[in-house]
Amino acid sequence: HRGGVELVKRQLKKFRNRPTYVTLDIDVVDPAFAPGTGTPQVGGLSSAQILDLVRSLKGLKLRGCDLVEVSPPYDNGEITSLLAANLLFELLCLF
Length: 95
Hints:
Layout: H1 2-11, E1 19-25, H2 47-55, E2 61-68, H3 79-92
Helix pairs in contact: 1-2, 2-3
């Protein structure tokens, strides 16, 4: 996935001067780091990778954002909720 994250980061350059809306789908994160989703994806990103990706959005003309697919009934130990809150905090800091 490291190559995939780096590829996305390179593609972001295309959006630097355009108004951008970002949607984060928590199920892109491996269930070891975010089990609280209805559609877990084994082999997904680590929490460190998704945080790195979100931080790389700095410089975009963000106009809005959301985070989807968090399902508290599946969230053992609330680790998905904590990651989601951290991701939203990082996104809000970009405005």
